[in-house]
Write a structure and sequence with these properties.
Helix content is 49%, strand content 12%. By secondary structure, the chain is of the alpha+beta class. Helix 11 crosses helix 13, helix 16 packs antiparallel against helix 17 and helix 21 runs antiparallel to helix 22.
Length: 808
């Protein structure tokens, strides 16, 4: 037994270490909320160890000491290479101490002092921490205080997680490391890394550790904490209520998959996070594997194998913007749009058609869409220009096109056309603008460049459009911002090829793959990020995989925003997602601001109709659909309005909108919905049979009902999967549709369950539910009065918010 004293020079006081038995105390190596740590030598086993002396009063009585000893015993049984082992716990003369494995190396806190770590290193650290958490959680041990200071990297690159399960014993301490918390008598842990439920005083579980893991990985990947508030109250408020900035905004080199993993860990509600450390490891391993191979995103199918109907909102001019930056950008757009209008006295309306390939090399056909995309992208920065979406013009191909007829159909004053010819290694592009009303060519320009340097060629086109075409259209481009340009030629080629793909499910996956490779090669390429987010948004189905895809879409769009806050289409996408996630008030505020900024944008009015639809204002939503039609008559986006007019009982107008996607699965699903409402059940059955068996519309649910037979075992399984997937998806509109199908099929209990949840998640459903023919079987039941009242209250809350917002 070594008896003596150790002089703690750091604290300037004598530390009694007598009777620490066979441990010889050496130098101090650390300190924090749980006490001071010394390096020591275990004479009995001839090994160096770390001894943590707990502050006096930490374990205030024998009951606490016994509880701590039980916990230490459980911790000592954790045998994992990523967990620092606890060897012993004892008390001598009132001094409590732990004997632990001595880990030599750097803490993660020290490692990130120099900034963000490379992604490969971040992945290595994250996977090892997740492995440590999995081991501990399987033994019922929750860390409670995971933070960079508790993560040690050894000289061999191995991660060791320290202080497992000990945070709750720091509650009585008042030291600097833990006084960051709001109420140290109630909270255990370190405030910047606490999960929201810990701050609320709720019991921490394994998902609280997963939140902390997200915070740690965020800091490793960016060099910063998500929330930098200095005051504890402000920091706590941010943790509880503020969405963390996307990591890619701070470090554009972060892959979207890693960003998705981080943001899923940091979900406010525990049920929306990964539910286990093992689940985190699955995505980390997948990311590591993909990064080591092709760099593409692995296709993520819905957990049910079903897809829910969604129209594909394509904007070939890379959709880049975000709600978060609209507030800051609003004054700019308003001022410059007004200034431009005053200078010209004209609101120009323009459509850009696909260009013609004048050569015989069909491998260059993708440029028919890629080159005009550059024109659309350039023009989209001019606030005083109303540009028809490229999705509305892609059908106008070939040489024999009547510009005056197209101009009348699209309601535009001017049309931009072009052609290109490759001769050897040179590509020659001619761009023209025509005043369709007077059938007069108002501008023409030819540029040439190397096929090997398409970025330079497109830069030429963009400059000529700004300097020559825009003034010829009667507006000024002098005040318009410039978007960021691509830097990597291969990334640019991949992006261009993605634009030429058709708007169907199979091509969507190919586009995602191309764009993922593009952003991997050029992390600062905003257009590619935006289009990637857009395609991922289209890919959202139902179930857990759908929620993952939704987060990936948002992460990609938000990355685009950080790089280039200049486009409105991405803002429209994100506002639609806000509605689908039940945030009606915020979506209305955001779309109102966007309407003030770009009142002549069909895309903005389209999303306005979407918000109003979810709020239960069907007439107003239909009016916005008609406004969109008057501005962007040919856009296939308008097919969504078919559901709004169907809800109003205006079936022929609904069909006219659905025909904008004639022949697609989406349009056929909409026709089934209308036929069911009209009571034309035999026709509905025939139309339903034209859909694939795994169609999102729930063929397995509706077909047995229409055939008046019980479902087969396989159909019953699919129906169960459909219910589970829809109920787990944030979008309440999908839950309302499920309620319609269940009601039609005579399943009132499940219909009411879906309808109640839809309303609770802010699909107001009133007055739609009062006249919906598909709900006729449940309207006569006593429960309907209560559900109806909930719908009225939902709509009224929105109207009150709308009235207040409109007055401001």
């Amino acid at each position: 037994m070594v008896v003596g004293t150790y002089y703690d020079r750091h604290c300037g006081q004598l530390m009694v270490s007598q009777a620490l038995r066979h441990y010889r105390m050496m130098e101090k190596i650390g300190g924090g909320g749980m006490g001071v740590v010394y390096r020591a030598h275990d004479d009995r086993l001839d090994r160096d160890v770390a001894i943590k002396i707990l502050p006096p009063g930490t374990l205030h009585d024998e009951v606490a000491r016994k509880r701590f000893r039980t916990e230490a015993l459980a911790l000592s049984k954790l045998n994992h290479p990523n967990i620092a082992t606890i060897h012993d716990f004892d008390t001598v003369d009132g001094t409590d101490f732990l004997v632990m494995e001595l880990v030599k190396g750097q803490t993660l806190t020290e490692m990130v002092q120099h900034g963000a770590m490379p992604e490969n290193d971040v992945l290595a650290v994250a996977m090892q921490i997740a492995q440590a958490l999995e081991e501990a959680h399987e033994h019922g041990v929750i860390h409670r205080d995971l933070k960079p200071g508790n993560v040690m990297m050894t000289q061999k690159g191995q991660v060791k997680v320290l202080d497992f399960g000990l945070a709750k014993y720091s509650q009585a301490l008042g030291d600097a490391a833990h006084t960051e918390s709001l109420s140290q008598q109630q909270l255990a842990g370190t405030l910047p890394y606490m999960a929201p439920e810990q701050l609320r005083g709720l019991r921490a579980d394994q998902r609280s550790d997963i939140y902390a893991l997200g915070m740690v990985v965020y800091e490793a990947a960016t060099g910063r904490r998500p929330f930098d508030d200095k005051l504890p109250t402000a920091l706590a408020d941010s943790i509880l209520h503020t969405t963390p900035p996307p990591p890619g905004r701070l470090n554009p080199k972060i892959s979207p998959q890693l960003e998705y993993i981080i943001l899923k860990c940091l979900e406010k509600a525990p049920e929306n996070r990964y539910q286990s450390a093992k689940d985190v490891q699955v995505d980390l391993r997948r990311l590591k594997r993909d990064a080591e191979s092709s760099g593409t995103i692995e296709k993520q199918e819905s957990s049910t194998g079903l897809r829910f109907p969604r129209t594909r909102w394509f904007s070939s001019a890379a959709v880049i913007s975000a709600v978060a930056l609209l507030l800051a950008a609003g004054a700019w757009w308003m001022t410059h749009s007004r200034s431009s209008s005053q200078m010209t006295g004209r609101q120009a309306t323009v459509a850009v058609l696909p260009f013609q390939n004048m050569g015989s090399d069909k491998t260059r056909d993708f440029l028919r869409f890629a080159v005009p995309d550059e024109v659309v992208s350039t023009l989209s920065y001019i606030p005083s220009l109303a540009i028809r979406p490229f999705s509305a013009t892609q059908k106008y191909t070939g040489e024999a096109i009547d510009l005056q007829s197209i101009g009348h159909e699209l309601r535009v004053a001017d049309i931009v056309t072009g052609r290109y010819l490759q001769e050897g290694d040179t590509l020659r592009v001619t761009v023209e603008a025509t005043d369709v009303e007077n059938n007069r060519l108002i501008w023409q320009q030819t540029v040439s460049g190397s096929v090997a340097d398409m970025i330079a060629l497109q830069d030429q086109i963009s400059a000529r459009v700004r300097e020559g075409m825009v003034p010829a259209l009667g507006v000024s481009a002098s005040l318009a911002p410039s978007g960021p340009r691509p830097k990597n030629p291969e990334a640019y080629d991949l992006y261009q090829r993605s634009l030429a793909l058709p708007a169907d499910t199979a091509s969507n996956q190919e586009g995602i793959s191309l764009l993922q490779r593009a952003v991997g090669l050029d992390p600062g390429y905003a257009s590619a990020w935006a289009e990637l987010g857009h395609l991922l948004y289209y890919e959202i189905g139902i179930g857990e995989a759908a929620n993952a895809t939704r987060l990936r879409a948002k992460a990609a769009l938000q990355r685009a925003v950080a790089l280039d806050p200049g486009r409105i289409e991405a803002a429209a996408d994100l506002i639609s997602m806000e509605s689908e996630e039940g945030d009606l008030n915020r979506s209305y505020d955001d779309i109102t601001k966007l309407l003030h900024q770009r009142p002549d944008s069909g895309a903005v009015h389209m999303v306005h109709s979407y918000v109003l639809w979810y709020a239960g204002l069907l007439d107003e939503a239909a009016s916005e659909c008609e406004k969109t039609h008057s501005l962007d008559a040919g856009t296939t986006d308008l097919a969504t309005c078919g559901h709004i007019f169907a809800a109003l009982g205006k079936y022929e107008r609904a069909r006219e909108y659905l025909q904008l996607q004639s022949g697609t699965e989406y349009a056929r699903q909409g026709e089934v919905e209308i036929l069911l409402r009209e009571g034309r059940l035999d026709e509905a059955l025939q139309q339903l049979k034209s859909l694939p068996m795994d169609a999102a519309y729930g063929r397995q649910l509706l077909e047995p009902c229409l055939q008046h037979r019980p479902p087969t075992k396989a159909e019953a399984v699919k129906v169960q999967q459909l219910h589970a997937g829809v109920m787990a998806t944030p979008d309440p509109g999908q839950k309302y549709a499920l309620a319609e199908w269940d009601s039609f099929c005579g399943k009132p209990d499940s219909a009411y369950r879906a309808l109640r949840l839809a309303i609770a998640q802010n699909y107001c459903a009133y007055p739609q539910m009062e006249t919906d023919p598909l709900l006729v079987k449940i309207r006569a039941l006593p429960e309907f009065a209560e559900v109806r009242a909930s719908g009225i209250a939902c709509r009224q809350r929105f109207l009150e918010h709308k009235a207040k917002a409109d007055r401001q």
